[in-house]
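Reminder to self: C-alpha coordinates first, then the designed residues, so the page reads top to bottom the way the pipeline ran.
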Protein backbone atom coordinates (compact mmCIF):
# COMPACT_ATOMS: atom_id res chain seq x y z
CA UNK A 1 0.00 0.00 0.00
CA UNK A 2 0.99 3.63 -0.40
CA UNK A 3 3.19 4.96 2.37
CA UNK A 4 4.67 8.40 2.90
CA UNK A 5 6.93 8.66 5.94
CA UNK A 6 8.27 12.06 6.92
CA UNK A 7 11.29 12.59 9.15
CA UNK A 8 13.78 15.28 10.10
CA UNK A 9 11.62 17.60 12.13
CA UNK A 10 12.64 18.95 15.50
CA UNK A 11 13.46 22.02 17.54
CA UNK A 12 15.60 24.69 15.90
CA UNK A 13 16.54 28.24 16.83
CA UNK A 14 15.43 31.16 14.66
CA UNK A 15 17.84 31.49 11.77
CA UNK A 16 18.65 27.80 11.86
CA UNK A 17 18.15 25.05 9.32
CA UNK A 18 16.44 21.70 9.06
CA UNK A 19 16.19 19.14 6.29
CA UNK A 20 12.99 17.15 6.07
CA UNK A 21 12.75 13.85 4.23
CA UNK A 22 9.75 11.93 2.96
CA UNK A 23 10.30 8.29 2.08
CA UNK A 24 7.70 6.98 -0.35
CA UNK A 25 6.68 3.44 -1.14
CA UNK A 26 3.85 1.46 -2.69
CA UNK A 27 3.48 3.50 -5.86
CA UNK A 28 5.60 4.53 -8.87
CA UNK A 29 7.24 7.51 -7.20
CA UNK A 30 8.97 8.91 -10.28
CA UNK A 31 5.64 9.30 -12.09
CA UNK A 32 4.20 11.82 -9.64
CA UNK A 33 4.81 15.39 -8.67
CA UNK A 34 5.31 15.69 -4.94
CA UNK A 35 4.49 18.47 -2.51
CA UNK A 36 5.16 19.60 1.02
CA UNK A 37 2.38 21.17 3.06
CA UNK A 38 2.36 22.53 6.59
CA UNK A 39 -0.23 23.21 9.24
CA UNK A 40 0.25 25.42 12.26
CA UNK A 41 -2.08 25.25 15.28
CA UNK A 42 -5.38 26.97 14.53
CA UNK A 43 -4.49 27.52 10.89
CA UNK A 44 -5.43 25.91 7.61
CA UNK A 45 -3.05 23.49 5.96
CA UNK A 46 -1.04 25.37 3.35
CA UNK A 47 1.02 24.37 0.35
CA UNK A 48 4.72 25.05 0.89
CA UNK A 49 6.47 23.64 -2.17
CA UNK A 50 5.96 21.36 -5.16
CA UNK A 51 8.38 19.50 -7.40
CA UNK A 52 7.63 17.87 -10.74
CA UNK A 53 8.23 14.20 -11.53
CA UNK A 54 11.76 14.68 -12.83
CA UNK A 55 12.62 17.51 -10.47
CA UNK A 56 13.18 19.98 -13.28
CA UNK A 57 10.53 22.38 -12.04
CA UNK A 58 9.69 23.60 -8.55
CA UNK A 59 7.26 26.06 -7.05
CA UNK A 60 7.10 27.70 -3.64
CA UNK A 61 4.76 29.64 -1.43
CA UNK A 62 5.75 33.30 -1.32
CA UNK A 63 6.39 33.01 2.41
CA UNK A 64 9.25 30.50 1.92
CA UNK A 65 10.77 31.57 -1.41
CA UNK A 66 14.51 32.02 -1.15
CA UNK A 67 14.66 30.12 2.15
CA UNK A 68 13.30 26.63 1.38
CA UNK A 69 14.40 24.22 -1.32
CA UNK A 70 12.47 21.16 -2.43
CA UNK A 71 14.32 18.32 -4.14
CA UNK A 72 13.89 14.64 -4.88
CA UNK A 73 15.89 11.50 -5.47
CA UNK A 74 13.88 9.15 -7.64
CA UNK A 75 16.42 6.36 -7.13
CA UNK A 76 15.70 6.52 -3.38
CA UNK A 77 11.97 7.29 -3.68
CA UNK A 78 12.51 10.27 -1.42
CA UNK A 79 11.56 13.94 -1.50
CA UNK A 80 13.34 16.51 0.63
CA UNK A 81 12.67 19.97 1.99
CA UNK A 82 15.73 21.99 2.95
CA UNK A 83 14.64 24.80 5.24
CA UNK A 84 17.06 27.64 5.94
CA UNK A 85 16.75 30.93 7.80
CA UNK A 86 13.85 29.55 9.80
CA UNK A 87 11.53 31.97 11.55
CA UNK A 88 8.88 31.46 14.19
CA UNK A 89 6.15 31.53 11.55
CA UNK A 90 7.60 28.37 10.01
CA UNK A 91 6.69 26.33 13.08
CA UNK A 92 4.12 23.72 12.04
CA UNK A 93 3.55 20.07 11.28
CA UNK A 94 4.97 19.39 7.83
CA UNK A 95 3.38 16.81 5.53
CA UNK A 96 4.38 15.38 2.22
CA UNK A 97 1.69 14.71 -0.31
CA UNK A 98 0.87 13.65 -3.82
CA UNK A 99 -2.26 13.56 -5.92
CA UNK A 100 -2.70 9.90 -6.71
CA UNK A 101 -4.86 8.11 -9.25
CA UNK A 102 -7.81 8.04 -6.88
CA UNK A 103 -7.23 10.57 -4.08
CA UNK A 104 -4.74 12.73 -2.26
CA UNK A 105 -2.19 10.84 -0.20
CA UNK A 106 -0.61 12.22 2.96
CA UNK A 107 2.13 11.23 5.34
CA UNK A 108 1.72 11.34 9.11
CA UNK A 109 3.65 14.60 9.39
CA UNK A 110 6.75 15.77 11.20
CA UNK A 111 6.78 18.58 13.76
CA UNK A 112 8.99 21.61 13.25
CA UNK A 113 9.41 23.95 16.22
CA UNK A 114 11.26 27.24 15.90
CA UNK A 115 12.17 28.75 19.23
CA UNK A 116 15.08 30.26 21.08
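Designed residues (116 positions):
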Amino acid sequence: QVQLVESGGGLVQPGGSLRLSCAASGFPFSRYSMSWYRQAPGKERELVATITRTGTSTDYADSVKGRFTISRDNAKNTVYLQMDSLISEDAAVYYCNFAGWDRLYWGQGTQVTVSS
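The first strand starts at residue 3 and ends at 7.
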